[in-house]
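Course assignment 3, question 2. Fill in each field.
Student: A.L.
Task: Predict the tertiary structure for the chain below.
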Amino acid sequence: MKMQTLVIGLNKKPGFTLIELLIVIVIIGLMSSILLLNTNIVNISNSPKTLEENFSEISQESIIRGKVLGWYANTNEQAVYEITNEETGIISKPIYSYTWYEFIDFEKEIETSDGLKFKLSNDDLDLPYILFYPSGETTGAKFTFYNNNQKYNFVLTHGGEFLRTDEF
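Answer field:
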């Protein structure tokens, strides 16, 4: 086997140098991070989720995107939109929507953090009830679900924690 000799008198061995390998690894890392940032983590798993799981995923999505996300709801579905401030006002871009998995046949009431109470109807989806911030915080809300003799109370705190409460 004959070795190549460089001008400076060193033998060059066949193979890649450490620099070449590091450059390839960096390029692969950049390409994969771009793909991951353009993927909704919510769309990865399509199984029905509880309200707590949905809020956890929306919070994670807001952190990953670095954007404010708004949660909209009516009696049949929930939706998440990206909220952006433009010169013309607030613009919402839809990210995804899903039907109610639990409490589907229940009356639904929401009290926002500023004290406004809403009873959900079929045509609501005009304004977000809850905002999720990239810091992991939310605007918070209180939820009441009732059906005949059953009543459930929940609170979404400003820190993003979802709690079941017996009374407000």
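Instructor remarks: The chain has a mean pLDDT of 79. The radius of gyration is 25 Å.
Grade: pending
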